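Tokens in:
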């Protein structure tokens, strides 16, 4: 089962980076593989959201339930989609007032053998560039 772990040190606060990652509705504006995003449910500690992955042969909606630890952590677990397993977390560690370390840990497996062989390389590329995309977004809007 593929596992992705990426991190970056940013000249922005943990709060700024958390807000960017948690703004799922903005994903189509800056994630080139995101064809759509919607919030299905949101309260103070839980968000359920659906995202359309659209890149090459990959054209699927998936839904995750995200447990929110304000400005510190987001834990993601699959609700629905082409995956057998999709779970992970974002962590936002304060370095000082205007700097933070962000980290993405992601584990995934597609639900069918054919999907696994065809889509795993595409999704791996998406997942491996996610931290870079969120970092670029931080520079763009701040």
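Residues out:
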């Amino acid at each position: 089962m593929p596992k992705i772990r990426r991190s970056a040190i940013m000249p922005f606060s943990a709060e700024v980076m958390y807000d960017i990652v948690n703004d799922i509705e903005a994903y189509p504006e800056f994630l080139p593989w995101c064809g759509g995003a919607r919030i299905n449910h949101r309260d103070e500690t839980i968000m359920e959201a659906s995202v359309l992955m659209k890149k090459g042969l990959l054209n699927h909606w998936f839904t995750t339930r995200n447990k929110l630890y304000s400005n510190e952590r987001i834990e993601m677990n699959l609700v629905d989609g082409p995956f057998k397993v999709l779970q992970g977390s974002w962590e936002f560690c304060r370095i000082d007032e205007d700097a933070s370390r962000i980290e993405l840990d992601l584990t995934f497996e597609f639900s069918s053998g054919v999907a696994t062989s065809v889509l795993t390389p595409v999704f791996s590329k998406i997942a491996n560039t996610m931290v870079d995309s969120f970092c670029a977004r931080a520079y763009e809007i701040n």
